[in-house]
Amino acid sequence: MVALRLCRPRFGTFADRPRDFADFANVLGETPAARLTRIRLIEARRLLGGERVMRDDAANVGYRSQAAFNRAFRRQYCETPAAVRRSLRGKG
């Protein structure tokens, strides 16, 4: 039962981290880092429809750099955050 083992903490040990990451990927179909990035970008896409400055939207989902946010967003959605913002606001 891989899914149960992922939820059971092993107090104070990091010896099985590589195996845990592999199990995570096998169960969920993506690495922990890829899942976190995808979740952040889904939330960022939702935030782009608001009135905040794009730099604030990037920071709110965990990006320190707007350039890094723009690259990750474009890689995920094949369009820039600015283009998505325009379409969400009905100006594109």
Describe the structure.
The chain has 92 residues and is mainly α. The chain has a domain of 57 residues: Homeodomain-like (Arc Repressor Mutant, subunit A), CATH 1.10.10.60. The chain has six helices and no strands. The longest helix has 16 residues. It is elongated and about 50 Å long.
Q: Major β-sheet, in short?
A: none
Multimeric status of the protein: single chain
**Count of alpha/pi helices:** 6
Q: Strand fraction band?
A: under 5%
The count of strands amounts to: 0
Distance between the termini: 49 Å
Poorly predicted ranges (pLDDT <50, ≥5 residues)? none
* Whole-angstrom Rg: 17 Å
| SS class | mainly alpha
Q: The CATH topology of the domain at 32-88 is what?
A: Arc Repressor Mutant, subunit A
Shape category = elongated
Superfamily (CATH H level) name of the domain at 32-88: Homeodomain-like
- Mean of pLDDT: 83
Q: What is the helix content?
A: 55-70%
CATH class of the domain at 32-88: Mainly Alpha
The arrangement of helices and strands along the chain is: HHHHHH
